[in-house]
Recover the amino acids of this structure.
């Protein structure tokens, strides 16, 4: 028997159907010589700090840095059943070998290897590497399986990423939380990302708007505009000199320009476009693309490539026309030339996966059955493929300069020569009821000028003054933040670097979500705005944690490790050195900045798990450390069944001494009330337990 391990149940079911495994069991599908099971995402992860020593249960500066010598692993509490199933299958006597069929990327590799190693499996395994869930792609993938050990470098890269995030996250978070008396989540990628948001916020809040003016002259269909004029008096003087005067065309420039078709989507560009057009968050777009992938309608979404490989050249014309049919608003057959196909083919720019495109399965699928959100993403990808192989957009840009009253005015216009890919893009925008966008200027650049010639004069022109204000930088949206993350540190990074920017296409969405869930960033419509906590955090952190440069260098190193071109041990030594350096160099809080984190809330007690303050909420008493799940619910069954609410004095006593004397508890057996000492019996699980103190104990 061969055990195939997928990442999700839906993917496992699709693979089982192709391989002829039809006998459904609890947690796997069996048949035709195969067993297909799945991981349900991350089943195994790096163990918590207190696993190494009980003293790490509490956050103390003297215990830092925490540097595990022999790394330990833990099985997710809510996924132990599936892990047990996989472990038993891996070690079953009739299972001779395995196939790693988790997502074909860095994190997918880590998910499988963690389970494989913790399960104690030593059996040989192969690697399934596919970019589509179509039956033909799955069969082709199984026909070209590779020895799993060929992906050891990819696994080492993933493991280094996980360990680096653990080391910096655990040590920096505990260090600065203890120093400033408030839980301050610090992350290897999320903190530099937050720094970009706070920097933009500071520029916006500190912006001083300035007034300026334009003078416009107009006659018939022609309008020309002056340069910016700071002073109102100067603008009025110009308007007076020009009004009802003569304008002469002193210069006329015609230039033929070309706009190449857009590139195909990688994940980041798809997330940006979906945010801009539909307002979807990066995570929503990733989830939708993943769902479409599992429905066999899109290729693998977690890609950083915007090109296809040469072996796909013959299928592109078919896919283009299927895409045109699928979206419905593109009429007729799309003519695809060899030159146009060549513009999207580049083997050297495809690493693990090619660009995101629709699959052949769209021809047999009723797209009207898709939810609107999924249909929007699929339409976006289909339209992009059609546009990418269309002709270039060619137009003539006309710039006319006029002299009037001794002042200079400029008019710009555009005449389309070849509509090209813009034709399909316009149909797409029309289907969404979006305004057309011109990438080469404002409204003036988008319309044609009337016939003009140098020396041509215009009599009795009207002159007017318009008032304007300079505008501050715009707040980041997920579209613009993803772009900033992608290019962070690029100006200081070597041109031949394997990877630039913060995070990877597959991880950036999760980074943004973590910033929001941690309370450092809030969404206002499409905008991402740093909160006061976010601003305060960046204010007290050193540059080594907030600069995007270091993290960009690490991402480049991780990519080199994945290619077998860098030493994982050397990378980890650098990370450990940084963790040590943080604890040595930043051992004392800045007294002036401590005021930023003064607690307005009353502290009920100290968390028995991590040592952070415990506050009172409407329904509970909760640990202020967002990473700690300690919560004492006021309506806990232990007290409710005895007709008593967990009041603040009881909670305070339990937190201080681990026990509290409680009067007036109701007994269902006797129907009477009684007094007893209640013990806090916390086992570290999701819910806190209580029990009575036994007499004589």
């Amino acid at each position: 028997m061969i055990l195939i391990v997928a990442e999700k149940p839906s993917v496992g079911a699709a693979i089982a159907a192709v391989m002829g495994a039809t006998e459904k069991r609890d947690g796997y599908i069996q048949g035709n010589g195969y067993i297909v099971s799945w991981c349900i995402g991350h089943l195994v992860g790096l163990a918590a700090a207190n696993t190494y020593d009980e003293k790490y249960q509490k956050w103390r500066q003297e215990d830092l840095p925490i540097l595990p010598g022999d790394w330990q692993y833990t099985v997710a509490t809510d996924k132990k059943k599936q892990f047990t199933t996989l472990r038993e299958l891996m070690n079953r006597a009739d299972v001779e070998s395995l196939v790693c069929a988790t997502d074909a990327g860095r994190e997918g590799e880590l998910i499988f290897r963690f389970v494989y190693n913790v399960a104690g499996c030593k059996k040989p395994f192969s690697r399934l590497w596919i970019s589509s869930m179509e039956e033909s792609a799955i069969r082709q993938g199984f026909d070209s399986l590779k020895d799993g050990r060929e992906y050891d470098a990819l696994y080492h890269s993933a493991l280094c990423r996980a360990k680096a995030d653990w080391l910096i996250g655990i040590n920096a978070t505990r260090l600065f939380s203890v120093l400033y008396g408030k839980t301050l989540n610090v992350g290897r990628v999320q903190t530099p990302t937050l720094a970009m948001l706070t920097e933009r916020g500071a520029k916006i809040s500190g912006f001083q708007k300035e007034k300026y003016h334009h003078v416009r002259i107009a006659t018939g269909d022609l309008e020309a505009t002056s340069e910016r004029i700071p002073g109102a008096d100067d603008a009025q003087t110009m308007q007076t000199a020009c009004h009802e005067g003569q304008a002469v065309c002193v210069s006329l420039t015609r230039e033929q320009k070309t706009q190449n078709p857009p590139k195909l989507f990688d994940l980041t560009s798809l997330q940006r476009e979906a945010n801009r057009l539909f307002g979807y968050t990066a995570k929503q777009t990733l989830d939708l693309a993943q769902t479409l992938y599992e429905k066999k309608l899109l290729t693998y979404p977690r890609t950083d490539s915007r090109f296809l490989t040469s072996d796909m050249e013959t299928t592109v014309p078919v896919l283009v026309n299927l895409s045109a049919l699928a979206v419905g608003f593109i009429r007729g057959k799309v003519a695809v030339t060899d030159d146009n196909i060549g513009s999207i083919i580049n083997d050297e720019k495809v690493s693990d996966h090619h660009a995101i495109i629709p699959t052949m399965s769209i021809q047999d699928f009723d797209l009207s059955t898709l939810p609107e959100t999924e249909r929007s993403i699929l339409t976006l990808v289909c339209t992009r493929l059609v546009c990418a192989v269309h002709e270039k957009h060619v137009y003539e840009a006309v710039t006319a300069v006029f002299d009037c009253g001794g002042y200079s005015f400029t008019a710009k216009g555009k005449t389309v020569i070849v509509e090209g890919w813009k034709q399909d893009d316009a149909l797409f925008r029309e289907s969404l009821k979006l305004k057309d966008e011109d990438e080469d200027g404002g409204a003036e650049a988008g319309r044609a000028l009337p016939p003009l010639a140098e020396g041509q004069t215009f009599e009795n022109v009207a002159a007017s003054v318009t008032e304007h204000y300079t505008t501050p930088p715009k707040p980041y949206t997920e579209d613009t933040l993803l772009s900033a993350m992608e290019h962070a540190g690029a100006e200081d990074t070597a041109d031949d670097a394997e990877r630039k920017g913060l995070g990877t296409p597959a991880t950036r969405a999760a980074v943004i979500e973590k910033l929001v869930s941690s309370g450092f960033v809030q969404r206002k419509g499409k905008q991402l705005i740093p909160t006061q906590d976010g601003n305060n955090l960046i204010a007290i952190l050193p540059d080594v944690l907030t600069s995007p440069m270091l993290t960009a260098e690490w991402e480049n190193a991780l990519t080199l490790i994945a290619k077998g071109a860098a030493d994982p041990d050397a990378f980890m030594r650098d990370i450990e050195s940084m963790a040590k350096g943080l604890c040595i160099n930043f051992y004392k809080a800045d007294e002036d900045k401590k005021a930023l984190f003064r607690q307005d809330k009353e502290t009920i007690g100290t968390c028995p798990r991590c040592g952070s303050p415990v506050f009172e909420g409407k329904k509970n008493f909760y640990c202020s450390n967002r990473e700690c799940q300690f919560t004492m619910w006021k309506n806990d069954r232990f007290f409710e069944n005895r007709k008593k609410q967990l009041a603040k004095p009881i909670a305070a006593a339990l937190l201080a001494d681990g026990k509290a004397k409680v009067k007036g508890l109701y007994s269902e057996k006797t129907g009477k009330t009684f007094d007893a000492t209640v013990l806090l019996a916390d086992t570290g699980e999701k819910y806190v337990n209580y029990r009575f103190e036994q007499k004589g104990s």
